[in-house]
Fold this protein.
Amino acid sequence: MKRYCYGLLLLCLAFAGVAGKMAFAQAPPPQQQPANAAGNWTLYCKDPNGTTSTKYLELQQNGTVISGHFKGPNQSGGVEGTIDVQHLVVRTKTRNVLTFRGRVDGQRVDGVVQGNTFNGTFHDRGGTGSFQGVRSN
């Protein structure tokens, strides 16, 4: 009887090992496409010093790589950044670098978020501010 129970236990462990390997052999879920962030954005900002300002981003997108142009009240210049699914990070190439971080939201078309809003925080040498962005095209 002991031998029978021992054999049955080994058989169950072997089956569990094979089943576990089969579970790991499955293909990973498909990676989500990055949101469409290309276009002209108007950012309504609450600056670190408590004032408000309007800033503009013209973004081009190639996969997950972002490029374009920035225009603010006191400076303008190029931008570079990345997008990971809906998380967008854009850094200005200006005298006083600004870094915008936030989430791009909008309706999905063919599984890709068509960004119409971009909300989050930004950092400059004065501290952290917040913004709400709207895409105009």
Notes: The chain has one helix and ten strands. The longest strand covers residues 52-62. The mean pLDDT is 86. The radius of gyration is 25 Å.
